[in-house]
Amino acid sequence: MDWSQHALPSMRLEPRFGDRVVPAFVKRPGSVWAMIAEAVAQNADGEALICGHVRLSWRQVVDRAARIAEGFRKLGLKRSDRVAILLGNRIEFPLLLFAAAHEGLVTVLLSTRQQKPEIAYVLTDCGANILIHEAGLAERLPDARDVPDVIHRVAVDDDPRVSRFAVLADNAAAAAPVDVHEEDTAMILYTSGTTGKPKGAMLAHCNIVHSSMVFASCLQLTEADRSIAAVPLGHVTGVVANITTMIRSSGALIIMPEFKAADYLKLAARERVTYTVMVPAMYNLCLLQPDFDSYDLSSWRIGGFGGAPMPVATIEKLKATIPGLKLMNCYGATGARIVAMGPDGRELPHGEIGELWIQGASVIKGYWNNPKATTESFTGGFWHSGDLGSVDADGFVRVFDRQKDMINRGGLKIYSAEVESVLAGHPAVIESAIIARACPVLGERVHAVVVTRTPVAGDVLRAWCAERLSDYKVPETMAITAEPLPRNANGKVLKRQLREHLGT
């Protein structure tokens, strides 16, 4: 796969969001809706969205989105109003995103795992004017008096207590789309709030367009490509790496309501999937299926992953079983500048480890209603990622750990991903999480939570690690279990929860 700069659309430096200067694609759609219009012009009758028995072409998608857009107009929604979406993976999800883009509305994505207080906080913070939700989640919704900005509530399923989805969908197609500026906010995604209240990360139209162009260009996606959305659509991976990237390529997006490894393999084989982006745990679960080798996955050429390190053992197994599959670690973006910074805010020499700062057209414009967090998270146009990594002389980025997950054992730094990768190579291990155990002498010691497929003693696993790691990196204590690790809606391991259980 040609990753050279000449294989990508030409770029130039442009001012962005006031004080930033970033590389931007010279020729690009001016908004998310403009990108959708290009997709229908490119592949009008090609498959666009597939979910269960529903199959829509790009022409049909645009027609349905325009009808929902007219429904938004009839409800009195205007450019920049916020539309909160509380849905799982279903066909209405992308249609609502497209309709909002048509009207210049801002979509606010909620997780189906959030509870009433969390939902109330997000709705209040963003000032959402309308909430669109699944009827089955109605009991989790805050009372109307607690979220006075939410004037309209619409259920995509039948719910006699709120408006039916027909209020939006059963309309004539809206006229011309609303004019937007590419720096207008298109979407707000809230952080997990691990260090305080969740922050609303604002994605502008230009952020989404550039990210989608990067995926489509680097991975050489075309209208012939077919992607399965197995991750939650309400997460940035689901939205950008799946939905809007397939808009840019005018290919087909197959929506999987809920990830189950056996169902994923059946769907991937039946639909001749070519491209996916998932978290490493999902690949591991696929490999654990006893009939994995019986599926024809020869069409699957690109397997993107992110959100967590991919164990070397998993990469080797996938390479052996699907030789035509190229695995891609999705981090940062082509055209973005990534530097490793020291604690003093100075760029570190090649190869030295520091916090990775990122600058580029795909980087968020800031945090909604939170100028303090925006100021603290940006320096000179660079966003502070919170990841520890290095950049070598050839520009290759290596990510070692989250800053908050690094273990400091008496001054010796231990990166959890390295130890987890070694444990993943043991045949009895499904997955593991490395966390710090408080120590009055050394400050922190290494503790492992290990999920196994067959019984194995901690001493055996420690011996395995001792043969492959420096002595100070070997876990001194272990919790071995058959229960899966706790994860958030995006598939990331909740190490905070593990630390709380450990009492550190």
From TrEMBL:
Keywords associated with the record: Ligase
Pfam family, one: AMP-binding_C
SUPFAM superfamilies (UniProt xref): Acetyl-CoA synthetase-like (SSF56801)
Keyword Ligase in annotation: yes
Ranges of residues in domain AMP-dependent synthetase/ligase: 37-340
Gene3D superfamilies: 3.30.300.30, N-terminal domain of ligase-like
MF terms (GO), sorted A to Z: acid-thiol ligase activity
Organism (species): Bradyrhizobium diazoefficiens
Coiled-coil region list: none
Domain AMP-binding enzyme C-terminal positions: 418-492
Record's keyword annotation contains Cell division: no
Protein name per the record: Putative O-succinylbenzoic acid--CoA ligase
